[in-house]
Amino acid sequence: MKREQLSDEIFELLPNSELKAMALWEDNYETLKSLENMPILDVLTCVYNAESYIENAIKTIVLQSYSNIHLVIVTDPCTDRTIEIIKQMMERFPNITLIENEHHAGSIACFNIGLEYCKSDFIARMDLDDLIHPMRFEKQMNYLLKHSEIAAISSFMRIFNENGPTKDVSYREDFDIQKITLLFFSPLSHAATIFRGEVLRKFEYDVKMKYAEDYDLWLKVMSEYKTAVLPEYLYLYRTHINQSTNEKNKLIAIETWKVIMQRLFTKLRLVPTEDQTDLHVNYNLLRTPIPNKTTFLNWLKWMNTVYKFNSDTRFFEPSKLKEFVFIYTFVDAFDQFKNELTSTELNTVLGSPYCNFSRKKTLYYKIKKTLGLNI
Fold first, then answer.
1. Partners of residue 235 on adjacent β-strands
2. Which of 46, 145, 191, 344 lies 20 to 30 Å (CA to CA) from residue 135?
3. Looking at residue 270, what DSSP letter applies?
């Protein structure tokens, strides 16, 4: 069996038969290993109380087909067996560096602490309750080494847990579209990414961006560099009850998103009001359903302003911004409120730069409205 085929088989097994998959992986490690002489790759991780998952997570890193790996693990003080398990793994795998915080620092500070121990030209991210494809690093590094213009390479991922089926998550492959999605959501999987070391060290992680440090990082990176995504499922994101997703954390994340959006709008030389920022976060990031015609018209007025300022700065590619907003939000919102619009309001909406209907369809809507018929 070819090692690519074997790697795929192991990856497909992992979500539902983790122990079986890991046994197959370990038994065939020498077959899977690449013989190419590749640059060293630092793998930056931080962890707190993950005893149930950490052993296999570490193994999926140190048993990669890409064997020139240095794994950096930063821990906050753990109350379970996490650190004990890491030290056991270090006895078997000498390419692991453990940094133990004496006091609780939080994940963002841990990332920055770990960066100090990453000396190579390439730094991969991973969370130590997740799992990865046996050839993830080999595939991503091959891409980076062939494309010097790319600052970071991510991949598609699958979400899984012990109780249900996997959910596939893909990302836009066009860099211009990745950048545009910054207006709506974090554009790529941070944990599934390899960064060029100079880029990640340049920006680090902002400790003020709690629960959205990856989103903030993508804005900084994409403002100056190109990113890419391999259209392959190479990362398994595990969901479980120990993850910090509660209402308080969600509210903190929303406030962080507002700051990130304000930073983004600065790139457009646009200074939004607090109400405009709230409008953007509520209906573009949170995807709260637009409740009425007035809110729809206010949303469109705001988005027209974004388009106008972007036309001057060209931070986003204008034609792709127009197309993305049309498909992502405009069409559904228009369909919901089109029959409530007055003739004047309809003309305003159809005159939006995001309105991408054909001339024939636009004329059809105007005639129907003039005749007093439902559109």
1. 132, 157
2. 46
3. -
Between helix 293-313 and helix 318-325 the angle, nearest 10°, is 170
Residues forming beta bridges with residue 238, ordered by sequence position: 160
**Residue 71, helix vs strand vs coil:** strand
Report the alpha-carbon distance of residue 365 to residue 368 in Å, rounded: 5
Half-sphere exposure of 54 (CA within 13 A, CB side): 22
Left if phi > 0, otherwise alpha if psi is -120 to 50, otherwise beta: which for 234? alpha
Position 299 scores a pLDDT of 98
pLDDT, residue 245, reads: 59
Q: Is 360 exposed, middle or buried (0-12, 13-18, 19+ CB in 10 A)?
A: exposed
CA-closest candidate to residue 213, choices 252, 245, 174: 252
Which letter does DSSP use for residue 282 in this model?
I
Single-letter amino acid code for the residue at 333: A
Tell me, what amino acid is at 61? I
- In the block, residue with structure tokens 């950096």: 72
Structure tokens at 272: 């939004």
DSSP states of 160-197: EETTEEEEEE----SHHHHHHGGGTS--S-STT-EEEH
Residues sharing a CB contact under 8 Å with residue 295, sequence separation 6 or more, in sequence order = 283
CB 141 within 8 A of CB 123: no
Both tokens assigned to 43: 């793998």
Residue ranges in the chain whose pLDDT is less than 50: none
Q: Which helix (H) or strand (E) holds 227?
A: strand 226-238
Instruction: State the helix-helix crossing angle for 3-13 and 18-27, rounded to 10 degrees.
Output: 160
| DSSP label of 11 | H
Q: Is the dihedral of CA 61, 63, 69, 74 positive or negative?
A: positive
Q: Determine the 3-state secondary structure of 298 from DSSP.
A: helix
Residue 163 is predicted with a pLDDT of 78
Measured CA to CA, the distance from residue 260 to residue 258 in angstroms comes to 5
Calculate ∠ Cα 151-205-274, nearest 5°.
Answer: 105
- SS3 of 305, please? helix
